[in-house]
Each structure stands twice: as structure tokens, then as C-alpha cells.
């Protein structure tokens, strides 16, 4: 007797795939850097399109007078009065935006809530953009080799007019550090590229201590009682293999909340992972350290492998507009679902997001007439990684 089975070609067209409405998680970057910025509110209708911050000059003993030598009761000459100096740091804000379009047919036949997902995606995209703008500003990635690019969608013209210091080594006034300074004595991008041992080229406890010491010598104010190292997971992995590493579970936070992305502490420096790192491809050209590689070469200690930028941050290292509450600069989602002359049949719904934003370096000196003698309160510490990831 013939038996008809589900595998018979004659009736298999009745079967269809089951579509689960449970969505898989999307790839989501951790936005880290904004939590360490100096927040500056910019009120509505104040007639200003720039973020401006001010700092008085550093303490000095140059005008202190010996009153006994001058004679009892003798006034200090006006020529010897202490002069106050005020530095202004400012950055013009730019407006950014993107739009997602959804057709009426899609919305009528939608298995998933595409409108809801478009709104969520727009917010995540803009958060990643903010993190990228801050990252590039700290790097100083306006210093690009002629004709080069730092990747699609990454702002390439970022400057506070202090190119000299973002392009100078940390000793004494710049912000750049390479590998382990104790052993990689030739401090340059090309020498880091050619370094092939973990002791020279990777982030070590000794390297952390050196960078923290530099910040302390620069009198960089601390963030909640310490400094912060914002770094790639591969760099923190190298650091965790150091004998001096202290896991976050082995120290008390003394009531201070953990930062987003924090993985531990060493020598009082809190280590925070960021997945949106600035990665350059190693080469013999120092200018390449300012070129963001959208497709990195991968980790490893051989020449040509990824060189990863980490940030040692003190307080007030950079400033950003306040983006919370009713601030006019807050990210705004705009959903348009009404017909107009360009779409008379209302066939398209758009989901847009816009933001008025800028990041401002507060902590690297420059030679601008209105912006002099600013302290170095952050460092860009470039290393390789011993993992091949």
C-alpha cells in the first residue's frame, strides 16, 4: 500500500518556514567617553553657536613680595601687582542628522515593528557618532596625511588650534606616549610599529604608572579621586595578565559608583573598556597614527599590526554640551507620517534623528592668543596587543 510522507514532492509546497518574532541582538557599541567630559549647558536663544569654556591662569609665586625688605608700611608698587589671566577655549558646534525611510507597504505587511526598531537604531547610531567625535577630538585626527581618509562617517576636521601639542610627545608638554616608556626608549610611532616584544609594545603596569605619574606632574585634577584609562578590550586583556593587576572585585570602591564599562583598577587608575577605539595600522610613517583604520590589520606584535590608542584622562580633559533634559542640544527623534507635496499619497514614513554637538579639548596647550598656557590633563597612549584578535 503506498504511503504518502511529508517528504513527498507532490505536497511539500504546503509547508512553510516558521518565523520567530524574537529578534536577535544587534551589534551595539559601548559609548564610554561622554561620561568623563566636562558638561556645559548652552541655553536656548543665547545667540551663540559655539561651546565656550574659561580657565584662569595657573598659580604663580612670581608676584609675591617681601614686605619686610620693602620697609614697614611701604605699599606694593602697582608695577608689581599680580595680574590675572583668563584663557578662553571654544569650539563651533555642528548639526548632525540621519533619516530612515519606511514605505506604507512595509508597515502594512510588517512582521516586526520596523518603526520602533528604526527609532531605536537612530538613537544608537547617534550615540556612537557622539563617542566617535569625542574620540577623534582627543586624538587630534585633523592631522592627516595628504589625501588620506579616516573612514566613512567619521569627522575629519577636528581642531582646537592646538596641533603642536597633540603632535608632541608627553615629555614635557605633549600628549603622546608609546608602548612601555621604560623599555621603549625611542618614543615614536614608527619605533612602536617595529617593536616585537610584549614588554616593549604592550600596555603594562609599569606603563600605566608612568602615564599616571605624568598626569600627576602636570597637576591634572582627578576624577572621583583617581585617573581613568579608557582602552580597547585587547589592551586591558594585556594589562590583566600583568602580575600587578588588581581585579575590580579585589578593591573597595568606597561608595563611588563604577563607571560604565569599568573592569578594574591598578595603582588607583580605573580601567574602562571602550569598543569604539581609534586604531591605526602600523607603518614607518608617523603621520599614519592619525589615520583611523575602518578595517584594522588585527592584533599581534609584528610590524604592520594594529596600534591602538588609549586615553589616560584627568578631570576637565575635554568639554561637551550638556545633552540631558530639555536642553535644545539633546538628540531629537523626528517621525514624519503625514502627506505633503513631496509625498501626496503618504507612501513613506521617515524616522530622523538630529543633534547639535561638538567636543572641545580643554587640556592640551596651544599657541593661540586667546588660548594659552592650558595644562596637559590627558594622554594618548598608543600600544600594540599581544593577542592576535
Characterise the protein shown here.
- The protein is α+β, with helices and mostly antiparallel strands and 389 residues long.
- The chain has helices at 67-70, 104-109, 114-139, 163-166, 189-194, 198-201, 205-217, 233-240, and strands at 38-40, 50-56, 86-92, 94-103, 176-178, 227-231, 246-247, 262-266, 269-273, 278-281, 306-313, 318-321, 332-336, 348-357, 360-361, 367-368, 371-372, 378-383.
- Strands 5, 6, 7, 8, 9, 10, 11 and 18 form an 8-stranded mixed beta sheet that branches. Strands 1-12-15 form a 3-stranded mixed beta sheet, covered by helices on one side. A 3-stranded antiparallel beta sheet has the order 4-14-13.
- Mean pLDDT is 80; it is low at 142-158 and 365-373.
Compact overview of the structure:
The chain is of the alpha+beta class.
How far apart lie the N and C ends? 60 Å
Assembly classification: single chain
Q: What best-fitting shape do the alpha-carbon axes yield? A: flat
Strand % is 15-25%
Largest sheet: 8 strands, mixed
| Main structural class | alpha+beta
Question: How many helices?
Answer: 8
Radius of gyration: 27 Å
- Helix fraction by DSSP (H/I, runs of at least 4): 10-25%
Topology as a string of helices (H) and strands (E): EEHEEHHHEHHHEHEEEEEEEEEEEE
Write down the overall mean pLDDT. Answer: 80
DSSP summary, beta strand count: 18
Low-confidence stretches: 142-158, 365-373
Core attributes:
8-stranded mixed sheet; alpha+beta; flat; 389 residues; 18 strands; 3-stranded mixed sheet
Give the SSE layout.
Elements: E1 38-40, E2 50-56, H1 67-70, E3 86-92, E4 94-103, H2 104-109, H3 114-139, H4 163-166, E5 176-178, H5 189-194, H6 198-201, H7 205-217, E6 227-231, H8 233-240, E7 246-247, E8 262-266, E9 269-273, E10 278-281, E11 306-313, E12 318-321, E13 332-336, E14 348-357, E15 360-361, E16 367-368, E17 371-372, E18 378-383
Parallel strand pairs: 1-12, 5-18, 6-9
Antiparallel strand pairs: 2-3, 4-14, 6-11, 7-8, 8-9, 10-11, 11-18, 12-15, 13-14, 16-17
Amino acid at each position: 500500500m503506498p504511503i504518502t510522507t511529508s517528504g513527498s514532492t507532490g505536497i511539500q509546497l504546503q509547508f512553510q518556514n516558521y518565523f520567530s518574532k524574537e529578534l536577535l541582538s544587534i551589534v551595539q557599541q559601548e559609548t564610554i567617553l561622554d561620561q568623563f567630559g566636562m558638561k556645559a549647558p548652552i541655553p536656548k536663544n543665547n545667540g551663540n553657536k559655539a561651546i565656550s569654556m574659561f580657565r584662569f591662569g595657573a598659580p604663580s609665586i612670581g608676584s609675591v613680595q617681601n614686605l619686610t625688605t620693602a620697609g614697614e608700611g611701604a605699599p606694593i608698587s602697582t608695577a608689581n601687582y599680580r595680574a590675572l589671566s583668563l584663557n578662553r577655549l571654544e569650539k563651533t558646534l555642528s548639526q548632525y542628522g540621519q533619516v530612515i525611510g519606511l514605505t506604507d507597504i512595509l508597515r502594512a505587511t510588517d512582521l516586526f515593528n520596523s518603526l520602533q526598531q528604526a527609532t531605536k537604531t537612530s538613537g544608537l547610531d547617534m550615540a556612537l557618532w557622539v563617542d566617535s567625535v569625542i574620540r577623534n577630538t582627543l586624538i587630534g585626527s585633523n592631522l592627516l596625511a595628504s589625501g588620506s581618509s579616516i573612514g566613512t562617517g567619521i569627522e575629519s576636521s577636528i581642531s582646537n588650534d592646538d596641533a603642536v601639542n597633540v603632535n608632541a610627545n608627553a615629555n614635557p608638554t605633549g600628549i603622546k606616549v608609546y608602548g612601555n616608556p621604560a623599555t621603549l626608549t625611542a618614543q615614536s610611532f614608527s619605533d612602536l610599529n617595529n617593536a616585537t616584544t610584549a614588554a616593549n609594545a604592550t600596555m603594562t603596569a609599569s606603563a600605566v604608572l608612568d602615564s599616571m605619574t605624568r598626569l600627576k606632574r602636570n597637576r591634572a585634577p582627578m576624577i572621583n579621586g583617581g585617573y581613568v584609562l579608557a582602552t580597547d578590550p585587547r589592551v586591558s586583556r594585556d594589562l590583566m595578565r600583568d602580575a600587578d593587576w588588581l581585579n575590580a572585585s579585589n578593591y573597595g570602591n568606597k561608595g563611588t559608583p563604577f563607571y560604565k564599562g569599568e573592569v578594574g583598577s591598578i595603582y588607583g587608575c580605573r580601567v574602562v573598556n571602550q569598543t569604539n577605539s581609534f586604531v591605526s595600522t602600523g607603518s614607518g610613517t608617523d603621520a599614519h597614527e592619525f589615520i583611523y583604520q575602518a578595517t584594522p590589520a588585527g592584533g599581534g606584535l609584528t610590524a604592520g599590526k594594529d596600534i591602538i590608542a588609549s586615553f589616560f584622562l584627568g578631570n576637565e580633559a575635554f568639554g561637551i554640551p550638556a545633552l540631558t533634559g530639555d536642553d535644545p542640544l539633546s538628540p531629537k527623534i523626528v517621525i514624519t507620517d503625514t502627506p505633503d507635496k513631496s509625498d501626496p499619497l503618504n507612501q513613506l514614513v521617515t524616522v530622523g534623528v538630529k543633534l547639535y554637538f561638538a567636543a572641545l579639548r580643554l587640556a592640551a596647550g596651544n599657541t593661540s592668543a586667546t588660548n594659552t598656557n592650558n595644562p596637559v590633563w590627558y594622554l594618548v597612549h598608543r600600544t600594540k596587543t599581544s593577542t592576535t584578535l
